[in-house]
Every structure is written in C-alpha cells, then in structure tokens.
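Good morning C.,

I know you're traveling, so I'll keep this short. The sequence:
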Amino acid sequence: MATIYRTAAGAITLLAVAVQYWVLMEGRSGDALIRSSIEFFSFFTILTNILAGVALLWPVLAPRSGLAHFLMRPSVRTAITGYIIIVGVVYYLLLRNVGNQHGLGLFVERSLHYVTPPLFVLDWLLFVPKHGLSWKVGFASLGYPFVYTVWTLLHGAVTGWYPYPFIDVPELGYPRVLANMVALVGSFLGLELALVGIGRLLAQLRERRLP
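The tokens, ready to paste straight into the viewer:
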C-alpha cells in the first residue's frame, strides 16, 4: 500500500513541478531561459516540492541506495513534512492573490500549494514510524531554510530579484526582511517541534492499542 501511494503521490508532485516549469519557460531561450530557470529553482515552493517528490519516489525506485535510506529516516520525513506544510500555509495566507498566472499555470500553481502538501502529510501520518522521534529534529530541520535564506539574500543582492514580496529587500529594506525571515524560521521551528510532539503521541497511542 505504501509503495503504491508513494509512487502515485511522488509522480503527481514531480509532474506538477515539470508542468509549471514548462508553462513558465515557454517561449524563452538563451540567456533569458537560463536566468528564468535559475529564478524558477530559487522558489522555496519549487525546491520543497522537488524534495518531497524525490523523498516519495526514490525509496521506491532505488530502495537499497544510501539516499533512499536517508530519505526514509523518520526524522528526515518529519522535517520535510514541516517544509511542505509551510509551503501551503504561506501561500494561502500571503501569496494566493499575488501574480498573474491563469489557465494551466494557475492550476499547477494551486496544485503545488494545495494538493502536493496534503499528499506528503498523509504519507507521514500513515506510513512513517514515529516511535522515538527526537526533539532534536526541530532544530536540525532549520538547516534547509537557513541555507535557502542565505542563497536568496545573496542571489538577490547580485541580481536585484527576490522570489517573494515579504523578502523583497529593495522594497522593504534589510531590517524588515531579516525580521520577516526570523519570524519564518521561528514558525519552522514551532511547526517541526509540533510535528515531533504529534508523532510521539501517535506512536504512544498505537502502542497502547497493540495487544
């Protein structure tokens, strides 16, 4: 059951990313294509959906590989669950009315924020062992958003382009952007710790039901 689910959910997730790339890159070539591609893969939404899709599919395609063993760790899957939840929540609260996509582009954009996150969360709820989840997961999971923040600020300083309005340095200034980043990191930490707590509770309830 887990294998079938992960194959389908992973394929849906990566297909959504691929279609979104195709829609946004249509008609571009040369330097414009390169620049737009770098910008496309600088969105937290895109990177996190790719991460979630690979985490779902790779253990099915290459179960004995080192990457599969890493991605199957409950701590890693819990961290990714937090990342993909943030993708959906931030979009709903701050970004759903930003941009001018329509048609297929808008459909895929909504899929990346409203469909693929629940798919990964459901996988975590149903198939990931949660016994022994450590509270350290909450703090260890901050590495990914920290690296993303550094990349975004460095890339933006060089090009003047920022993927999201709440980190637009020319518009808001560094103090406001850094404050927004700190708030987001705090949200990451709180969410990841909440997931660990939920996971530990679910594991305890499951143990109590076993004979």
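Safe travels,
E.
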